[in-house]
What we know:
Blueprint: E1 10-16, E2 21-29, E3 36-44, H1 51-69, E4 73-77, H2 85-104, E5 109-112, H3 114-122, H4 129-139, H5 149-177, E6 199-200, E7 203-204
Parallel strand pairs: 1-4, 4-5
Antiparallel strand pairs: 1-2, 2-3, 6-7
Helix pairs in contact: 1-2, 3-5, 4-5
Amino acid sequence: MTLYAPPPTTRVFGIDPGLTRCGLGIVEGVPGRPPAMVAVGVVRTNADQHIADRLLAIEEEIERWLTEYRPDAVAVERVFSQHNVRTVMGTAQAGAVAIVCAARRGLPVALHTPSEVKAAVTGSGRADKEQVTVMVMRLLRMTDRPRPADAADALALAICHLWRAPALKVRRTTLNAGPVNAGPVNTGPVNTGPMRTGPVSGGQASASPVAAAPVVGGTA
């Protein structure tokens, strides 16, 4: 008799990077089932602070969360092009801090685009922030809206990775395996022998070998 063993739960730390507000959210569950929320919050830094101090504050808070909640994986939003280059730079810097924090502890890190997160949570890659927040609240059975929106985005990132992780693992394994080398196929020479045909009604056909003259200087 084989007993059913439920799949182990996975705890994912979602991080929506940003300098002014860096969203943090942790969920726990198994792929294909509604997860449970573990924690949600946001790191705030002042625009008047030096960039080094702001990044240090984000790093310290992420480290505190990693120590307290011990996630199995970290999901960070992939930075995409925007018109405001300064905003993109700040987001990328905060995202890099999150990646380094996870790597320092040997945790797997995944990057997901906003459209991937929206599609995973709402079913549409073009959903707006309100739709994402509503679906996050429904999936996590939350009665209070996570605020600010960066916190909801962090939870959505964690849910996205929790559900997409098995497919990503299979894809990564397939890519690492590389192409299959079947080796050379040696068929050897084919000896067809002389070709002869039997009598044909109304006459007789005979096929004889044709000798080709050697080609010299490009002319036959």
